[in-house]
Design brief:
- The chain is an alpha+beta fold and 250 residues long.
- It has a single domain (3-248), classed as Alpha-Beta Plaits (2-Layer Sandwich), CATH 3.30.70.
- It is built from 7 helices and 11 strands.
- It has helices at residues 3-20, 71-80, 122-126, 152-156, 190-195, 201-205, 222-230, and strands at 26-33, 36-42, 56-61, 95-101, 108-114, 132-134, 140-142, 163-164, 183-184, 211-215, 245-248.
- The strands form 5 sheets. It has a 3-stranded mixed sheet with strand order 10-3-11.
- The longest helix has 18 residues, at 3-20.
- The chain is globular and about 45 Å long.
- The protein starts with a helix and ends with a strand.
């Protein structure tokens, strides 16, 4: 690779860090019950780069997802300023409710599906400008300033988790900048992560306790404890993407 290409790549990487950059979270232990430790998340200075010490993710227990419940979808729409058009539908879906049915038994499962924040994201592999990228802490994002709207990432995503914005948008929220002609998807509430909130809008809104947010790299986090005790499955595990979102009850 030429020195000119290396210089360009370094500038893009530095720009992403300044724009979306956030912090790797520092953690302090909090005892919840005998044998169970939950780490509370605290923010670091905004100019401190994220770190691969953390791997943020979600665990979704489909057995707790109630039929017809859309609280997680509504919370996501509200948190990120996704607009309602002709009723409950929005101009984009960062999280959507999916019903799976076993044709042989008739058994159905309801669950939310969003960007799976893959360790090896296909969307990043096919992006010609580097607009799609993965932070060191596992969160997959889109840099709207260099997205050219080619939609290669939408075709590459096996979870249909990305949206293309066709219209001019107004009244955007500072935490979720959006733009016509660009692609977007679930950001795992990156602004809340970098603020040290220790939760996402969907997890916070779920009154059934079906969604758990946390650090997959921390063996003492609640999400890791649950995965250790009851396990969790990846969607399309055969693809070898090592997703940051795991499911129980499938």
């Amino acid at each position: 690779m030429s020195s000119k290409t290396n210089s360009s790549s370094n500038k893009i990487d530095q720009y992403r860090r300044r724009l979306l950059g956030g912090s790797a979270a520092a953690v302090a232990g909090l005892t919840l019950a005998p044998g169970l430790i939950l780490n509370t998340v605290q923010a670091k200075p905004a100019d401190q780069a994220v770190s691969n010490k953390n791997r943020w993710g979600l665990l979704i227990d489909t057995k707790k997802c109630a039929d017809g419940c859309t609280d997680c979808v509504t919370a996501c729409n509200t948190e990120h300023g996704l607009r309602e058009i002709h009723g409950p539908a929005t101009d984009a879906q960062w999280i959507r409710n999916v019903t799976l049915k076993n044709k042989s038994t008739g058994h159905t499962v309801n669950m939310p599906v969003m960007c799976q924040h893959c360790e090896n994201p296909p969307c990043v592999d096919v992006c010609p400008t580097g607009a799609s990228f993965k932070r060191d802490d596992g969160i997959v994002l889109v840099d709207k300033h260099i997205c050219i709207g080619c939609r290669y990432c939408m075709m590459a995503c096996p979870y249909k988790a990305r949206n293309f914005i066709h219209e001019v948008l107004t009244d955007q929220l500072p935490v979720a900048p959006r733009g016509k002609g660009t692609v977007e998807a679930c950001t795992l509430c990156v602004h809340k992560v970098d603020n040290g909130d220790g939760t996402t809008a969907c997890a916070d809104a779920c009154k059934h306790g079906a969604i758990t947010f946390g650090d997959l790299n921390d063996k003492n986090s609640l999400i890791s404890k649950k995965l250790e005790m009851t396990g969790g499955r990846q969607l399309r595990a055969e693809l070898g993407l090592n997703t940051g979102v795991r499911y129980q009850g499938l």
